[in-house]
Recover the amino acids of this structure.
């Protein structure tokens, strides 16, 4: 976006003004950009405060935020602004970057790409999930809730409504998507599916 | 020439299918890439891999170069240095030469394409001659986070006429009235520079280069350019040499658009004096196998740059499982996650400290090398970059 912040006051003021796409980029798309090694915190504001400003207190306060606890991005923005505002009100000086990098605000555009892959059974679903690009996991779990406003991710919803497996759907939707990597999410969903498939064979 | 399916074995799962699906959105469209050199430097190397893969996916991709005089490349080298923050004097004559070469190139080239991608400042003024059809993108590969204002103002008058600009890092973005996109550069794991080498092949190449294999090797591969700090690397080596019997290899290529290289090379030779453990190699632009063999033979790889567009030699070495110590500059900080995939440092002393630490802890070297390799597979392969470009073309195409 060509906008940046060098201290926490600037960060706060810019967060108040940025479009929601930018807020979404810095709080939700972290996993798409860090598929292999997760950073210290799962949102860019927290990581910047902790690493670049070396303000671990603010890093910790922002790092624990789970964006899926909020009804929409505006509510999330209000919460972030309040946390930073309250934090600054307790300090004599405004923490700023001295040796680190300024915070560079970004914005994202999602381009949907149909994979052409279709599953009709749990086994087909499981086998496809093993092979697809990790961005598929992101799209159907994170984007489904964030942009499409669904009550749970596409995988859980399809398993509940089409396969009539509400317990499995519940288990998948209860996974803490915000604290683990995309590959971990993939592995955990496959494991949950395998447990059900195993019981089917035994039963 | 590699085809997309050749990458199935090395890329993360699902990548190739995803790319093929994404390519369907721009199939049959024509994209034209224009830069200023066919040989030498990261841009030419990337385009050499990028173009055939786009073609393989059904995109009509072409690559053209603008040919300039020595005077033109002297001017654009000053542009380059100035945009990266160095004090430079640019005369009116230099600016005039820049404009004349761009206008002459515009007369020679056809811009009949759906997308025209102009790489770096050298051909940036071609935008003056854009036809009505087609989206024009300025792809800036260099670090312009702190440009000299005078030259950036001059260049900006052209940049604002593009439909979009692409930078390698968020910090390079400028206040511009056009959309700006972030695309990390990437390496080609199947190219001669990165493909696996047999031990015999590697030994033959090292023998041909007269590089002994009886001592741990510190290596820096880069142009002989002050921004890459080759003199700082020699200083680092001397600090390490007090405790470890290592050798240093400085391997640099020459690019046709870099007239300053010879001066820096002579300074490096002077600094190395007659130390038999410092090997200075001036490699031709197509010495890809030689660089591959050197990186595989290295114990620790350095990229001690002050300024860096991205620093792809870092990803090359990481892909070969080597621990890399790099300067805190440009894209090096994105590639080297401190203490996980490598180390960034700010001084010769800092680099020497980390080298000591690694040489004394070989298990740390192994772990960092493994993590570095996987990090490159996930983030810095040409297939990821292809996906980014296809997505950008798809996005820009929607607006037309």
């Amino acid at each position: 976006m060509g906008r940046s912040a060098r201290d926490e006051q600037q960060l706060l003021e810019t967060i108040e003004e940025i479009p929601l796409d930018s807020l979404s980029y810095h709080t939700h798309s972290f996993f798409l950009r860090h598929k292999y090694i997760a950073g210290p915190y799962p949102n860019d504001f927290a990581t910047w405060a902790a690493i670049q400003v070396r303000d671990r207190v603010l890093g910790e306060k922002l790092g624990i935020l789970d964006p899926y606890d909020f009804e929409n991005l505006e509510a999330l923005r209000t919460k972030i602004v309040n946390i930073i505002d309250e934090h600054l009100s307790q300090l004599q000086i405004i923490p700023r970057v001295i040796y680190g990098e300024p915070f560079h605000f970004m914005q994202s555009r999602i381009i949907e790409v149909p994979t052409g892959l279709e599953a009709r059974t749990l086994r087909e679903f499981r086998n496809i999930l093993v092979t697809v690009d990790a961005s598929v996991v992101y799209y159907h779990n994170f984007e489904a809730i964030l942009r499409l406003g669904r009550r749970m991710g596409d995988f859980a919803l399809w398993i509940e409504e089409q396969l009539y497996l509400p317990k499995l759907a519940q288990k998948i939707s209860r996974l803490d998507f915000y604290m683990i990597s995309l590959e971990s999410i993939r592995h955990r969903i496959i494991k949950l599916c395998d447990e059900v498939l195993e019981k089917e064979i035994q039963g | 020439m590699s085809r997309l399916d050749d990458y199935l074995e090395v890329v993360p799962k699902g990548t190739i299918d995803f790319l093929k699906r994404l390519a369907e959105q721009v199939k049959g469209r024509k994209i034209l890439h224009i830069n200023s050199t066919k040989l030498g430097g990261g841009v030419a190397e990337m385009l050499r891999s990028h173009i055939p893969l786009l073609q393989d996916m059904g995109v009509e991709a072409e690559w053209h170069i603008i040919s300039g005089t020595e005077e033109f490349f002297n001017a654009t080298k000053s542009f380059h240095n100035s945009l990266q923050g160095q004090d430079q004097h640019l005369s009116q004559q230099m600016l005039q030469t820049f404009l004349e070469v761009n206008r002459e190139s515009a007369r020679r080239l056809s811009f009949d394409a759906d997308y025209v991608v102009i790489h770096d400042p050298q051909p940036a003024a071609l935008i003056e001659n854009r036809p009505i059809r087609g989206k024009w993108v300025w792809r800036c590969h260099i670090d312009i986070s702190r440009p000299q204002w005078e030259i950036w103002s001059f260049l900006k008058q052209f940049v604002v006429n593009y439909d979009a600009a692409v930078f390698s890092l968020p910090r390079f973005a400028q206040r511009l009235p056009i959309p700006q996109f972030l695309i990390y550069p990437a390496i080609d794991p199947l190219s001669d520079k990165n493909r696996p080498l047999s031990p015999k092949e590697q030994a033959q190449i090292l023998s041909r280069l007269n590089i002994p294999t009886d001592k741990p090797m510190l290596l820096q591969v880069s142009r002989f350019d002050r921004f890459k700090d080759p003199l700082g690397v020699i200083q680092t080596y001397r600090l390490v040499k007090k405790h470890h019997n290592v050798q240093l290899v400085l391997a640099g290529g020459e690019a046709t658009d870099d007239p300053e290289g010879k001066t820096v090379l002579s300074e490096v030779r002077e600094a190395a004096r007659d130390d038999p453990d410092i090997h200075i190699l001036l490699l031709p632009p197509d010495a890809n196998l030689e660089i591959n063999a050197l990186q595989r033979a290295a114990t620790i790889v350095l990229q001690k740059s002050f300024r860096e567009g991205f620093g792809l030699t870092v990803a090359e070495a990481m892909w070969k499982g080597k621990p890399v110590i790099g300067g805190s500059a440009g894209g090096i900080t994105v590639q080297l996650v401190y203490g996980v995939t490598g180390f960034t440092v700010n001084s010769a002393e800092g680099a020497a400290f980390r080298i000591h630490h690694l040489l004394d802890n070989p298990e740390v070297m192994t772990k960092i090398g493994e993590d570095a390799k996987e990090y490159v597979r996930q983030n810095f392969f040409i297939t990821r970059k292809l996906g980014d470009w296809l997505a950008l073309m798809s996005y820009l195409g929607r607006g037309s």
Observations:
- Chain A has a mean pLDDT of 86.
- The two ends of chain A are 57 Å apart (CA to CA).
